[in-house]
Amino acid sequence: MTTTDITLSAVEDGETKALTPGEIFRQRIFGHKGFLLGAGLILLIVLVAIFAPLLAPHDPYAQSLSSRMLPPVWDDAGTWDHLLGTDQNGRDYLSRLIYGTRVSITIGIGAATVGLFIGVTLGVIAGYFGGWLDHAISFLLTAQLALPGLLLAMALVFIIGPSIWVVIGIVGVLHWTYYLVVTRAATQRIRSQDFIAAAAASGASSRQIIWHEILPNLLSSIIVIFTFELGIAILAESSLSFLGVGIQPPTPSWGLMIAEGKQAMFYRPWLVILPGICLFLLVIGANLMGDGLRDITSPEGRNG
Questions:
Q1: What's one GO-annotated cellular component (predicted)?
Q2: pLDDT of residue 301 exceeding 80
Q3: Can you give the pLDDT at residue 54?
């Protein structure tokens, strides 16, 4: 949609009727194909994660050495009992893929939330108060950007010990810079507005102005950043698991499944391709939804 959509009108019985803001917003949502596709993918994956015990045909941890490396059902040697075959330990691959959605969604949402609290807090403080606080936080941002994120995450996980909660904390602590940059700039812009001066003149404290005036105006930007950081956190977890310092066996993780299948990828390629496709769909869904939210919530309403 273009800028003219802000004043979009509907014709009913030969009369022109101005659309309400709610109707314009709905038109933007349902007119943005990228957002609908991304939101649909994310919703589908979340539902799979929630109903994993009902959807998985087998126990994802159950091993059977007599059923090792069975091919998928479309192969001549495949069987309907294991639609996507089995891994090197005889575990049903479809069941492990389904349960792997829980790990990816949990770590993605958890890490993105940790980064949100750190980045938004620092960004609002730097943007609102300025001065030495702004300089100190800017120095912290520069130092963070100078560090090799993946190598630092590997070192921290190795020192602390791998677990889901450790991975969530470390990935979140290392992915807050985007929140800070955007919220700092937006807060500096909002701070100069007349309604902030009016709130201060009426006796509102800095805490009240931040909570009731600034943060509500940052909400749309924060939601957009969260969707992008969701995909980044999922890829970071997969990278750590692939390198052996993330989620540990026998927990089903897509990155770990790729690492376990890489030795047999030339004659059992589905062991790598299937979890790779799942990762691709989840990350592209998060990115499409984030890109769509940015377009939908922008004043000019860019076309999807």
A1: plasma membrane
A2: no
A3: 92
Domain ranges of the chain: 31-297
Q: How far apart are CA 134 and CA 194, in angstroms?
A: 22
Say how far apart CA 228 and CA 170 lie, in whole Å: 18
DSSP letter at 269 equals T
Q: What is the pLDDT of residue 99?
A: 94
Residue 66 to residues 60, 95, 229, Cα–Cα distance (Å): 16, 18, 42
Give the helix ranges, DSSP H, for 130-214: 131-146, 149-160, 164-173, 177-191, 194-201, 206-209
- Enter the pTM of the model: 0.82
DSSP 86: B
* Residue found under tokens 């700092």: 184
Q: How far is CA 260 from CA 72, 146, 220, 263, in A?
A: 17, 32, 40, 7
- CA torsion angle for 155, 159, 164, 169 (degrees, to 10)? -70
* Residues contacting 7, CB < 8 A, separation 6+: 18
| Listed residue (220, 254, 276) closest to 105, CA to CA | 254
User: Which pLDDT belongs to residue 21?
Assistant: 65
Architecture of domain 31-297 in this structure? Orthogonal Bundle (1.10)
pLDDT in tens, 91-112: 999 999 999 999 989 998 999 9
Residue 181 three-state SS: helix
Burial class (CB in 10 A: 0-12, 13-18, 19+), 126: buried
Cα separation values, 87 from 49, 116, 170, 213, Å = 21, 37, 30, 54
